[in-house]
C-alpha cells in the first residue's frame, strides 16, 4: 500500500494523456487555447504504462484517464486496451467531453470500462457555444445516449458558474428522472489559465439550497468511501445528484489520489505545484526500485488538504494553471 503521513491509503491515480482539447471552455483555458506541449514533451504510451504498472504493484487499484480531452491523442485506444489488461488493476475509467466518444463506446465496453465521467455544463445549444467556444452539444448528447445504451455508468460533470449556467441546474437534474445518471455540480475552481477571477458565491451550500427550492423532497444518501461529492436522491428519479465542493475543499480529509500530468509531473494534490517529473527521471535511466522510493517519499509529503497545498503554492509564487495542464 501507498500511505501518506496522515495514514491515508493512496489507491487512485488520475493520469492525463494530453493537455490538448477540442473545446475552449471558459472555466478551463483562454479562448486562444494554451501553449500546447510538443509531442516529445509528453510522456510516451510506453512510459505511461511503465508508471501505471509500477503504481499498481505499489497499491493503486483505480486509474482514471483524463486530459485535456483524451480522445484527441492519436492511438489512445490501444493504450487503454493495454491498461485494461494490466494485472492487479481493479478499475479503469475515463473523463471525456464527449465530442469524439460516441463511435468508440462499443470498444470501451469491450475493454471492460464500466464508468465514464462526461463533461456537460448546459443543455442549451447557444449557451454551450458561449461556454465551450465551440459547437458540440449534439455530439455530447449522442455520447450520453450511447453510453447509457451500452449500460456504462455515467457521471455528468457540470461546473456551476455565476451569471452563466445557473438556469441549467434544474434541466440537468431532470435528466435523473428517467435516466440512471449521476449529475454532479462542481464549484468553479481557479484553474482557468488566469482568464478571470473565480467567485465563491455558488458554493456547495448555495447550490444545494437552490436545488431544494425546486426539489424540496431531495434526500441525502450515503457517500461512497473517498467520495468527492455529497450525494442526494430525489424520490421517483432513476438517477442521483452530487455536489462537489472543489473550491471550498471540504472533502480533502479523505483524499486517496495521485495525479500525473501529460508531461509526467507527479502531483499529490490538485492544488499543489507538483513534486518531480517522472518522465525525465525515467528517461534518465532510473530503475523501478528508485522510482518507487521517490514516489513513496513524495506521498509522505502530501499536504493535509487543498488549503495547505495552495499556501505552499503561494509561498513558491507559482501561478495557477489551466485544468488541461493539470489533468482534472
UniProtKB/TrEMBL annotation:
Residues 5-225 form the Radical SAM core domain. Its EC number is 4.1.99.22. GO terms for biological process: Mo-molybdopterin cofactor biosynthetic process. Keywords: 4Fe-4S, GTP-binding, Iron, Iron-sulfur, Lyase, Metal-binding, Molybdenum cofactor biosynthesis, Nucleotide-binding, S-adenosyl-L-methionine. SMART domains: Elp3 (SM00729). Its cofactor is [4Fe-4S] cluster. It catalyses: GTP + AH2 + S-adenosyl-L-methionine = (8S)-3',8-cyclo-7,8-dihydroguanosine 5'-triphosphate + 5'-deoxyadenosine + L-methionine + A + H(+). One of its GO terms (molecular function) is GTP 3',8'-cyclase activity. NCBIfam families: moaA. This is GTP 3',8-cyclase. It comes from Niabella ginsenosidivorans.
Amino acid at each position: 500500500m501507498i500511505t501518506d503521513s496522515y495514514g491515508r491509503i493512496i489507491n487512485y491515480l488520475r493520469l492525463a494523456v494530453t493537455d490538448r482539447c477540442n473545446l475552449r471552455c471558459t472555466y478551463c483555458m483562454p479562448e486562444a487555447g494554451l501553449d500546447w506541449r510538443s509531442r516529445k514533451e509528453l510522456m510516451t504510451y510506453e512510459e505511461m504504462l511503465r508508471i501505471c504498472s509500477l503504481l499498481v504493484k505499489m497499491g493503486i487499484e483505480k486509474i482514471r484517464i483524463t486530459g485535456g480531452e483524451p480522445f484527441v491523442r492519436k492511438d489512445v485506444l490501444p493504450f487503454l486496451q493495454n491498461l485494461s489488461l494490466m494485472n492487479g488493476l481493479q478499475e479503469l475509467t475515463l473523463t471525456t467531453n464527449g465530442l469524439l466518444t460516441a463511435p468508440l463506446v462499443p470498444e470501451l465496453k469491450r475493454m471492460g470500462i464500466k464508468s465514464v465521467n462526461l463533461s456537460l455544463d448546459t443543455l442549451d445549444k447557444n449557451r454551450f457555444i458561449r461556454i465551450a467556444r465551440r459547437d458540440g452539444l449534439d455530439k455530447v448528447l449522442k455520447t450520453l445516449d450511447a453510453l447509457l445504451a451500452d449500460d456504462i455508468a455515467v457521471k455528468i460533470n457540470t461546473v456551476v458558474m455565476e451569471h452563466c449556467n445557473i438556469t441549467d441546474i434544474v434541466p440537468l437534474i431532470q435528466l435523473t428522472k428517467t435516466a440512471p445518471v449521476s449529475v454532479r455540480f462542481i464549484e468553479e475552481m481557479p484553474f482557468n489559465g488566469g482568464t478571470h477571477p473565480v467567485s465563491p458565491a455558488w458554493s456547495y451550500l448555495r447550490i444545494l439550497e437552490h436545488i431544494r427550492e425546486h426539489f424540496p423532497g431531495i434526500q441525502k444518501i450515503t457517500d461512497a468511501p473517498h467520495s468527492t461529492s455529497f450525494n442526494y436522491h430525489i424520490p421517483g428519479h432513476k438517477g442521483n445528484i452530487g455536489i462537489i465542493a472543489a473550491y471550498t475543499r471540504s472533502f480533502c480529509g479523505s483524499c486517496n489520489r495521485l495525479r500525473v500530468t501529460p508531461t509526467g509531473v507527479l502531483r499529490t494534490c490538485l492544488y499543489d505545484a507538483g513534486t518531480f517529473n517522472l518522465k525525465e527521471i525515467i528517461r534518465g535511466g532510473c530503475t523501478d526500485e528508485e522510482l518507487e522510493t521517490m514516489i513513496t517519499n513524495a506521498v509522505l509529503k502530501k499536504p493535509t488538504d487543498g488549503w495547505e497545498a495552495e499556501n505552499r503554492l503561494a509561498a513558491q509564487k507559482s501561478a495557477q494553471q489551466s485544468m488541461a495542464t493539470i489533468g482534472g
